Amino acid sequence: MDFKAFDLIVEKLTPVLQLQEFNAPEPYDMENGKAVVFTAGNLAYGVFYNVKTKRFDLKSATLQEGKEPTWRSLSTWMFDPETDALADAESIANDFVETVEGSKRVEMVRQNKKRNKKEDGTLNADPQFLFNRLMGVFPELRDEMTEERIRYGRIRFFTFAKEKIAPKVERLSCDYPGSEPFEKMCSVFNDMYANADMDARSVITVAILNEINDTAYENIREKMSEDLGKIYKFSRKYRGKQVKPEKKKKEKKVVARSLNEMK
Asked: How does the average pLDDT of the chain come out, rounded?
């Protein structure tokens, strides 16, 4: 397999960590992928790429003599070398650099704790995970997410997806169907739906796909995976509709009236 993206990320991260007095990266044994580790005393950062799940992880650990390190994920990105470009790897590298440089690390750790886990212990993709992938298609999302955090202290996932992402998806799907960015966007939706938690799946179906017009939807539908297409054809029926709360059962009123008459 070609590890150009992996090498690019490590190359960009190395001088930043060396300024913090970490050693040069050393190869690290990893099943189903490639990894390197930077160490400084008992502290370590690791860059991991899992070929099977197509995922980059930036992790940290406290090293103890004679014990295997317990790695904590600080930032996670999906990357498929067959469909993603080196420009996407650049975005991942920039995020990893920002993570180790300062306050963003605290936020990434906080978000990581909130992510759900699969039965095998791996992390599901949450809405932030989805937005990170879509930055490869819509680079302006990075600045828009920063503005969202500054204004609201967090990203309002469903609102942000409806207001910022859905219009971009609609324009791209209507104006440039079949283009490379369009194909990449559809691939992101399919990959993320297959690996996502329930929040991210709902963002894809309800906050994005249900907000686009019929022309955009028909163009995307042709590219949907079997899983996404099978589920979403039911969600599309609720586009623009609000489900009314269930009415109270009349029987309760009858019982209440009968009790009052007995008094």
From this structure: 80
Instruction: Please give, one letter per residue, the 3-state secondary structure of the chain.
Output: CCCHHHHHHHHHHHHHHHHCCCCCCEECCCCCEEEEEEEECCEEEEEEEECCCCEEEEEEEECCCCCCCCCEEEEEEECCCCCCCHHHHHHHHHHHHHHHHCCHHHHHHHHHHHCCECCCCCECECHHHHHHHHCCCCCCHHHHHHHHHHHHCCCCHHHHHHHHHHHHHHHHHHHCCCCHHHHHHHHHHHHHHHHECHHHHHHHHHHHHHHCCHHHHHHHHCCCCHHHHHHHHHHHHHCCCCCCCCCCCHHHHHHHHHHHHHC
Short-list 109, 103, 118, 49, CA closest to 79: 49
Q: How large is the average pLDDT for residues 170-184?
A: 93
Q: What is the pLDDT of residues 122-172, one digit of tens each?
A: 445 788 888 988 988 998 998 898 888 888 888 899 999 999 999 999 999
- Residue 132 pLDDT: 86
Structure-block tokens of residue 202: 């709902």
Amino acid residing at 211: E
